[in-house]
Design a protein that fits this description.
It is a single chain. This protein is mainly α. About 55% of the residues lie in helices and about 0% in strands. The protein has helices spanning about 5-20, 25-40, 55-60. The longest helix has 16 residues, at about 5-20. The radius of gyration is 22 Å and the shape is flat.
């Protein structure tokens, strides 16, 4: 697998965060929640509900 510098930067950042949090999952989750608050305007939130692409027959009405 060829080395990808972007992937390597992500892995390095993850390792740094792990070390700063003492490899404690709870501390890491608190860290990430604080980061989400700081950068809330940059986050993309996907709608949990599925979007219907084709309206149902009941909504389209009858043709005739």
């Amino acid at each position: 697998m060829p080395d990808d510098p972007v992937i390597q930067r992500i892995r390095d950042a993850r390792r740094q965060i792990q070390e700063e949090c003492g490899n404690d999952v709870h501390r890491m989750s608190l860290f990430f929640m604080e980061e989400q608050k700081k950068y809330a305007d940059r986050l993309v939130c996907w709608n949990a509900q599925k979007t219907r692409l084709i309206p149902s027959k009941a909504k389209r009405g009858k043709r005739g």
